[in-house]
Design brief:
about 150 residues, 3 strands, elongated
Length: about 150
C-alpha cells in the first residue's frame, strides 16, 4: 500500500490536470469561434456605410464602418471566456486580415473573403511530473486554436 499510494495520487492528479487542459482547449476554441463569427457579421450598415482610410487606425473605431475593429474582436474572445476562470492575453489573439485588410476589401467591394481569428494560451499544470512529461521545460502546454469564417458584408 505504501508503494502504490504515491503512484495512485500522482495518476489521479495527472488525470485532473489533463481534464483541466481539455477544458481550457474547449473553452478557448469556443471563444475564438464566437469571435470569428462576430468578425464576419456586418457591424453596422446604417444608411451610408463607410470605413476610414487606413493608416492610421482611428481610435475609437468609427460606428458607421461595416467591419468591426481588431480590438472589438479581441475583446469578444475574452467576453466569451467570462466565467471560465481565465482570460487570453490580448497580445496572444490575432485577426487576419487586420483592420486595414478588411477595410480595403470592403471599400473595393470584395465580399465573402475569409477572416481568421487565432489564439494562443500557456496552460500551466498543477502536477509537476505531468507538466514535465506533457508540457515544455517550464511545465506549460501551449494551446493554439483558430477559426475561419467568410465575411458576410
Amino acid at each position: 500500500m505504501a508503494v502504490m499510494v504515491p503512484f495512485l495520487v500522482i495518476g489521479m492528479m495527472g488525470l485532473l490536470d489533463l481534464g483541466r487542459a481539455f477544458y481550457y482547449q474547449i473553452s478557448i476554441t469556443n471563444a475564438v469561434r464566437e469571435a470569428a463569427r462576430y468578425a464576419v457579421q456586418p457591424y453596422y450598415l446604417g444608411l451610408n456605410p463607410a470605413c476610414p482610410t487606413i493608416p492610421p487606425i482611428p481610435n475609437p473605431w468609427p460606428t458607421n464602418c461595416v467591419t468591426p475593429a481588431d480590438a472589438a474582436i479581441t475583446a469578444r474572445v475574452n467576453q466569451e471566456l467570462q466565467g471560465t476562470g481565465f482570460l487570453v492575453p490580448a497580445g496572444a489573439i490575432q485577426v487576419s486580415p487586420n483592420d486595414q485588410g478588411r477595410t480595403d476589401n470592403f471599400t473595393k467591394g470584395t465580399s465573402g473573403y475569409p477572416i481568421q481569428v487565432s489564439a494562443s494560451f500557456k496552460f500551466t499544470f498543477i502536477t509537476p511530473i505531468i507538466g514535465q512529461l506533457v508540457g515544455d521545460a517550464n511545465g506549460q502546454l501551449t494551446i493554439n486554436t483558430s477559426a475561419v469564417f467568410r465575411a458576410e458584408y
